[in-house]
Write a structure and sequence with these properties.
Layout: H1 2-20, H2 26-42
Helix pairs in contact: 1-2
């Protein structure tokens, strides 16, 4: 269940970046990236290819 939530969040961030492109505010992308990094660190994820 936790991996599904993490994968969903990662997909959401990727979609936001794709939609917003260079116009995506840096503060938003930085904050989302920091939250994602914290989740990865908490779950000891070091390689996205291993998250299935």
């Amino acid at each position: 269940m936790e991996k599904d939530a993490l994968k969903f969040f990662h997909a959401y961030v990727n979609e936001m970046i794709e939609i917003g492109g260079e116009n995506l505010p840096r503060a938003v992308s930085t904050k989302l990236g920091a939250k994602l990094a914290a989740l990865y660190k908490e779950k000891s994820i070091t390689d996205l290819r291993k998250v299935n």
